[in-house]
Amino acid sequence: MSISVPALMGQLLIGLINGSFYALLSLGLAVIFGLLNIINFTHGAQYMLGAFVAWFLLNKAGLGYWWALLLVPIVLAAFGVLIERLMLKHLYKLDHLYGLLLTFGLALVLEGIFTHQFGSAGLPYNMPEKLTGGYNLGFMFLPTYRAWVIVASLVICLGTWFVIERTKLGSYLRAATENPSLVQAFGVNVPRMITLTYGFGVALAGLAGVFAAPIYQVSPQMGSSLIIVVFAVVVIGGMGSIMGSILTGFGLGIIEGLTKYFYPEASSTVIFVIMAIVLMVRPQGLFGQR
Predict the structure, then answer these.
(1) Structural domain boundaries of the chain?
(2) How far is CA 146 from CA 13, 113, 247, 277, in A?
(3) How much of the chain exceeds pLDDT 70, in percent?
(4) How does the average pLDDT of the chain come out, rounded?
(5) Is residue 1 over pLDDT 60?
């Protein structure tokens, strides 16, 4: 088999793009699970909501992409706070299964509402003028917007890791997962911290939706087609592991891209095969703790 460098680089670029979304979404899931111990199956629907809010801002309010990057995370964070206060806070002392069932049901409701209103066909979202075009690197053509998504996602992921692992606020968050009553004794409002953490995780999903809107059409099913893969990424990286989610997200995106080039038939299952192997060898995930 002769290797076509432009085709190979093209698939690697697609893999990096997919990896950017895997990393952002699995990071939000890891943050939420790490503190709340809730398996947030609504994450795919919240990603879809982020894309739809960006579409509404453009078509109903005349606010373009850059405004959406600012406003969508705020709107989705507020939506997440509402869900946590009205629903999830009643489940913290129950088995994980209850949170999974609630968030799964909520995802189905949200997807059903948007499918009824907009149908299953996708809605176009124009990419910003400043990010159109691309660069001819000789061996491939690199679209500007896709390069922006990769770099911006990496910066956001590493910034989140730094805040959680290297700052005082992050130390409170990590301590609250181990001993919330002790942290509260030091004057920290743990319930408020939990609420804001869930809102932040949802905001990350909404931001990923804005990034995705110009690349993929805005559709009610865009989240459900991605969330299963994202959960596999989280399991492979280790439930609750921040750096595990980032490295595994980008790494599996690249592996998926390479598989599409060398063995396309396996591209839709390679991540799940890797998940099965990791679970057999290291059940807590590559970066998780027992």
Answers:
(1) 12-91+144-281
(2) 8, 30, 19, 31
(3) 99
(4) 90
(5) no
Q: What type of residue is 178?
A: E
**Does the pLDDT of residue 187 top 70, yes or no?**
yes
Instruction: Quote the CA–CA distance of 49 and 139 in Å, as a whole number.
Output: 37
Instruction: Please identify which residue in the block is written with the tokens 């499918």.
Output: 115
> HEC string of 218-242?
ECCCCCHHHHHHHHHHHHHHCCCCH
Question: Which residues partner with 143 through β-bridges?
Answer: 134
- Taking the CA atoms of residue 56, residue 57, residue 59 and residue 62 in that order, the dihedral angle to the nearest 10 degrees is 170
CA 20 to chain centre: 8
Question: What is the tally of helices (H) and strands (E) in the chain?
Answer: 11, 2
Q: Please give the pLDDT value at position 290.
A: 64
Tell me what pLDDT residue 183 has.
80
